[in-house]
Design a protein that fits this description.
Strand content: 25-35%
Radius of gyration: 21 Å
Order of helices and strands: HHEEHEEHHEEEE
Number of strands: 8
Structural class: alpha+beta
Largest sheet: 4 strands, antiparallel
Distance between the termini: 44 Å
């Protein structure tokens, strides 16, 4: 019986190189979408724009890049509020609030805020650029997709790659 340890070692090294390469491309893709999201982000004091970051998570079966903000108000800016909220998920009646200090000091009535989907717009406008970072297997095993994740208190655009092979190297 022959010793396959050299072959196994070579396969492990090749797999690690592929995962590293795809991870690197995922980071590049995230930076492309992150930069566009920052460009599209509405700015008052710049806190929301500065909070937009990206990260890559490599697990056993997929590599996921996430771009977003964990600021409490990010989903409200992105999805809108009140009568303007995306998918009709907002309050239907006007409401008042008081700002105690700063340039918005005083009492205000509002019906809500229109959505400003800076992440969604960045994802859609950079989709073709991001897709160039991967080459999908011809047998359809791998896929790459852009999708939006919306949870209370967090606003994220995610890119996932399951079984993808590295494509272009920039």
């Amino acid at each position: 019986m022959s010793d396959n340890s050299a072959f196994e070692s070579s396969m492990n090294k090749a797999m690690l190189e592929i995962i590293t390469d795809v991870g690197r491309n995922m980071k590049k893709a995230c930076y492309v979408v992150e930069a566009e999201a920052k460009k599209n982000c509405p700015v008052d004091q710049g806190i929301l724009r500065a909070s937009i970051t990206s990260e890559v998570d490599i697990s056993g079966s997929e590599i996921v890049g996430m771009i977003g903000s964990t600021l409490e108000y990010a989903p409200y800016v992105h999805e809108g509020t009140g009568i303007y909220a995306k998918d009709g998920n907002g309050r239907k009646t006007p409401w008042g609030y008081t700002v105690m200090a700063g340039k918005y000091k005083g009492f205000h009535w509002t019906r809500g805020q229109r959505p400003q989907p800076f992440l969604e717009d960045a994802k859609l406008s950079k989709k073709s650029s991001v897709e160039g970072f991967w080459e999908v297997n011809s047998n359809g095993i791998g896929h790459q997709e852009l999708h939006r994740v919306h949870d209370p208190g967090i606003c994220i655009a995610a890119i996932s790659c399951n079984g993808c092979r590295p494509g272009r190297r920039d």
